[in-house]
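Predicting holo structure, magnesium ion bound.
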Amino acid sequence: MSGPPSTASSPSSMDRSTAGDEVGRIYGDVGVGEFKLALTRPLERGEYLTVKDDRGKRVLCQLTQLERKSDFGAERARDAVAGLASTEVTDTLYGRAHVIGYRESGVVEVPQIPFRPASPVFTADEHLIGEVLGLHKSDKTAAYIGLLRGHSLRVELDINSLVQRHLSVLAKTGAGKSYLVGVLLEEFLRHNVTCVIVDPHGEYGSLRYRTDRTPKDPERFGVEPAAFRDKITEFSPDTTLNKEAKPLTFSLKNLDPRELLTFMGFTSVRSYVAPLKNLMELAAQANPDFSLKDLVRLAHAQSESEGNVAYEALAERLEYLDETKLLAPVGTSLHEIVVGGKMTILNLRGVAPDIQEIVVTRVLSSFFEQRKRNKIPPLFLVVEEAHNYCPQQGQAISSRILKTIASEGRKFGLGMCIVSQRPARVDKNVLSQCATQLILQVTNPLDVKAIAQSVEGLTEGMTEMIQSLPIGTCLVSGGGFHSPLFCEVRPRSTRHGGESVNVIPV
Ligand SMILES: Nc1ncnc2c1ncn2[C@@H]1O[C@H](COP(=O)(O)OP(=O)(O)O)[C@@H](O)[C@H]1O
Ligand SMILES: [Mg+2]
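Done. Tokens:
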């Protein structure tokens, strides 16, 4: 449809050189952002379409709803069961499409005049899709996470914006979160991005090894097996269980009474600060390199001489802390944990939840403080099972530092990826700071609602589709793309550490 618009003219077929096949026509009342179309061949929900507007601009649209209407009514259906009616059906496909827009001078514009009824609708070609959605990134900063669903266009996230604007990976358990985070981390390893992973299940150590699976569709995805042994260091408070890890310890000497109380798991510290300070002073007088055992002994002695119940409580918690072996004469240095261009895994497998919270609090707080002073390189932090470390309801001592990093981390080059199987249970203040969301299948109604509320530009159709996504397909929202899109996650180059376990061997 070129030339000046005329209200009387009915749109004829579009010139085929500029688009894919004609798949239908617009009918009925047409809105600015949405239209109905009668389809001449079956398409899948989510497919990209194009329509020319009055100025001849090719506008990208997306099929959001589909319905097959037929002359096969309830009565005929009942008759057919009794063998009284034929099951020959005449049916027609109808759909609804959402108008995404066209790109002009780098900006996506949405036509402000509704398309004309009877306008032909075509499948969109990949050039137009890539241009309007903003799929092409600079190689230097691009993290390739997969292909646009049903196409061969690469979905790439800009690593710099991820670090500056945070990210969340949300889905029900088993939907492929850790696999996808593994894909992202492979890209970070390739680009020498400094990162630290809070890994409660010890899943990410497998990034050291090449995948032992034959990659799916190697030509389509273009993924080669790879290993990153030299770029990964693992630390754990429990090196008996996690044999590939170096010990993660904290130095007693560097802790003040308040910090030590946090390590001991006290949530309310007020009545214990003075007695513990007293114990630490007494211990230091006797031996500047005092140990936890010295403090326990002194706490028992003070409890007997002063009859103060606080000392007994302190003795008990100090003993427990000593058993965890979390404190050592010389603790792990932050400079060992954060190494420029390398990845560090904090493997917390087998560590009690309260101790995990303390470790996360302590390590993340030092990251934040040291980043403020530029003493460590800018880094990207991955927090798996984030609902445990910053819950929406209930308390976790790590909540405060996670909220601080979520709201202020970007100023200091401290980016964060929040991973959770229960989006509704993650602190809303933290989730709302994530500018990019990767969402795999979610079915729990509360989680679906939490996502619908926190993801911008999500249409009703997309919210429905999230509930039936196959494993390995994710919705990407934000990430510099003009509108949310579906992505088939690329296969891993490295081994996935979170394989589902069979109860009965097969
Ligand atoms: N993109 C994918 N391609 C192939 N298999 C996948 C993909 N994503 C997940 N899987 C498989 O699905 C299972 C669950 O994935 P996982 O990432 O561990 O789930 P989650 O972390 O969400 O609980 C794993 O066995 C994994 O191999
Ligand atoms: Mg997982």
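The radius of gyration is 29 Å.
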